[in-house]
Amino acid sequence: MDNLGLLSLLAVAPIAVVGVLLAGLRWPAKYAMPVGYVIALATAGFVWQVQPAALAAATIEGFIIALTLLYIVFGALLLLATVIASGAMDRIKAGFDNISTDRRVQAIIIGWLFGSFIEGASGFGTPAAVAAPLLLALGFPAMAAVMVGLIIQSTPVSFGAVGTPILVGVANGLEKDSAPMQARLAELGMEYPQYIALIGFNVAVIHALVGILIPLIISVMLTGFFGERRSFAEGLKIWPFAIYASLAMTVPYVFVAYVLGPEFPSLLGGLFGLALVMFTSSKGFLMPKETFSFPPRSRWEQRWLGNFDANKVREGAGERGEMSLLTAWAPYILLAVLLVLTRIIDPLQSVLTSTTVPMTIPFADILGTNVSTTVQLFYSPGTLLIIVCAVTYVLHKMPGHAIADTWKVAGKQLLGTAVALDSRSRWCGCSSVRAPTSTTPGWPPCR
């Protein structure tokens, strides 16, 4: 079969089918994703003639990658259950209520600003695993919390994990020793690191322009889909605060990209914006005159809901003492510090990413194929999340039964998500077929 158009349709078939099942037929992901996997497996085997050993190896690789992601999700769920059971979340909510009870404001501060900072520190989806549960615990519908966590995965992403997409993805992908690259460097009169920094700055400018509207999009989506009146206009009413919050992050974001390079735009932009907006919001600056909130929980649509019951966790924890706002926020502060330190201190990062066991668990040449992957257990945000939980147990003086309950709750919630295993479509030949339809004939082949 050499019809590129038909091959392209077959290549996107697994994704298209999953999209129809999820969005069109409202299937749960635990049913839709396995269907997509079976279709990917079938097209790889029958259309691209991928050998059974390679298919099995890719499946094993996807299973391993899925476990590493689930490990992060478990850590995030455990932290959520911990701060709820200890009473910290109630104190955090009271602190936010003192700033603003407006759900649009809370979503922008936590999702956009705190999420951008976490993306800059850790990347790899960590903001969604941290910010979304925090919003959920503050009383957001589960679907709204997830929506906010995913929308912000935009402007900060190219500089996530201390600039990894630029410093690793772009820098390695351009092949600096190639003749065209050397000619380009000579034309510009630059060294290769300077060229990468220039690319990073250009990316920052483009993404900052897009980022100006991201907080406003968050606000509009919240009011349009989760508000009492389902009014998009209600989200636009907060535009002065939304634009201000966007600029509080994007202006330092671009400045840092120009002055310091690709490592810190999201991290420092998010941190500066978070500090500035939290301070000015506490003084009432640009706060909306009309407060937006969600309708009573009894009127929420069933599809808005998750299966995490914060009230049950609170009830199971029993009596809890009063704590300061700083103590309540301590788990998230500690998490942010650990994420930053393990990413910017080179000796520490080298130890945690060492290729020796147990720091890195290798899975090389699975089933005798060239499919390989690794698991960096101690560098994973999941490990840091569990460490933070352990410290929180002591700091918040949690009783043993409450600690045990947090693990039970997190484990139970995890079981509902452990379904869609990544079959890595690039090993099925799909990527190399999809690419020519949207790029140039020079797109590199699947290896």
TrEMBL record:
<keyword id="KW-0812">Transmembrane</keyword>
<keyword id="KW-0813">Transport</keyword>
<feature type="transmembrane region" description="Helical">
    <location>
        <begin position="105"/>
        <end position="124"/>
    </location>
</feature>
<keyword id="KW-1133">Transmembrane helix</keyword>
<dbReference type="GO" id="GO:0015295">
    <property type="term" value="F:solute:proton symporter activity"/>
</dbReference>
<feature type="transmembrane region" description="Helical">
    <location>
        <begin position="62"/>
        <end position="84"/>
    </location>
</feature>
<comment type="function">
    <text>Uptake of L-lactate across the membrane. Can also transport D-lactate and glycolate.</text>
</comment>
<feature type="transmembrane region" description="Helical">
    <location>
        <begin position="31"/>
        <end position="50"/>
    </location>
</feature>
<protein>
    <recommendedName>
        <fullName>L-lactate permease</fullName>
    </recommendedName>
</protein>
<dbReference type="GO" id="GO:0005886">
    <property type="term" value="C:plasma membrane"/>
</dbReference>
<dbReference type="InterPro" id="IPR003804">
    <property type="entry name" value="Lactate_perm"/>
</dbReference>
<dbReference type="Pfam" id="PF02652">
    <property type="entry name" value="Lactate_perm"/>
</dbReference>
<feature type="transmembrane region" description="Helical">
    <location>
        <begin position="194"/>
        <end position="226"/>
    </location>
</feature>
<keyword id="KW-1003">Cell membrane</keyword>
<feature type="transmembrane region" description="Helical">
    <location>
        <begin position="130"/>
        <end position="150"/>
    </location>
</feature>
<feature type="transmembrane region" description="Helical">
    <location>
        <begin position="238"/>
        <end position="260"/>
    </location>
</feature>
<comment type="similarity">
    <text>Belongs to the lactate permease family.</text>
</comment>
<feature type="transmembrane region" description="Helical">
    <location>
        <begin position="377"/>
        <end position="395"/>
    </location>
</feature>
<dbReference type="GO" id="GO:0015129">
    <property type="term" value="F:lactate transmembrane transporter activity"/>
</dbReference>
<feature type="transmembrane region" description="Helical">
    <location>
        <begin position="6"/>
        <end position="24"/>
    </location>
</feature>
<feature type="transmembrane region" description="Helical">
    <location>
        <begin position="266"/>
        <end position="286"/>
    </location>
</feature>
<feature type="transmembrane region" description="Helical">
    <location>
        <begin position="324"/>
        <end position="345"/>
    </location>
</feature>
<keyword id="KW-0472">Membrane</keyword>
